[in-house]
Write a structure and sequence with these properties.
Layout lengths: L2 H15 L4 H8 L3 H8 L8 H10 L4 H5 L13
Helix pairs in contact: 2-4
Length: 80
């Protein structure tokens, strides 16, 4: 699994857990709705750490908490 897919899957999981829409996450994080949409559709080749930090902030959590998920297990990620 790519890091981009892992980020998209983690966002999807947290949106459900927090009963939040992509639009609300975009508003809370300061990321444009279209940029968030590209992340969710895995159209981006890379997701930067600063973007992950903004997304975590949008969920009102730390980056550590955002990354604390089986989606980011080093053994299943394709790291280039």
């Amino acid at each position: 699994m790519t890091v981009n897919k892992a980020v998209a899957m983690r966002i999807s999981q947290l949106l459900i857990e927090k009963n939040m829409t992509q639009y609300r996450l975009a508003e809370n994080s300061g990321i444009s709705h279209s940029r968030l949409g590209c992340i969710m559709k895995e159209k981006n080749k890379t997701v930067t750490l600063s973007t992950v930090m903004l997304i975590a902030q949008g969920f009102n959590m730390s980056v550590i908490d955002f990354l604390d998920s089986p989606f980011f297990d080093i053994n299943i990620l394709d790291i280039e």
